[in-house]
Design a protein that fits this description.
Layout (H helix, E strand, L loop, with lengths): L5 E3 L5 H6 L5 E6 L4 H16 L5 E6 L4 H6 L7 E6 L2 E7 L4 H9 L3
């Protein structure tokens, strides 16, 4: 079951939820047809649940939000972008281990 703490990010709410966020944001660029993205899903949910109130975790469906994917030059998925103060400060491409993703996010807190 997907976590209720993972935000669905679209072009409509991107500025408010990501660029203007007062806490760091981990964004998962994914698509439903992407196998590694589906494998990463539960890891993203766990990180979201663990960081409630400290950071935001969101998912961007690249099929639905091609403009955002193009804006951040997402060429392969899953792509994970770490934002702080509206800027991309780190990124990971491919299914990364939970510990690696959690420590990158922790470093921004």
């Amino acid at each position: 079951m997907a976590s209720t703490n993972v935000l669905t990010i679209t072009e409509t709410n991107f500025d408010a939820e990501v660029l203007k966020s007062e806490v760091p944001v981990l964004l998962d660029f994914w698509a439903p047809w992407c196998g590694p993205c589906r494998m990463l899903g539960p890891v993203i949910d766990e990180i979201a649940d663990a960081k409630v109130g400290q950071a935001k975790v969101g998912k961007v469906n690249v099929d639905d939000c091609q403009g955002l994917a193009a804006r951040y030059r997402i060429n392969s998925i899953p792509a994970l972008l770490f934002f702080k103060n509206g800027e991309v400060v780190d990124q990971t491409v491919g299914a990364a281990p939970k510990a690696s993703l959690a420590s990158k996010l922790e470093a921004l807190l």
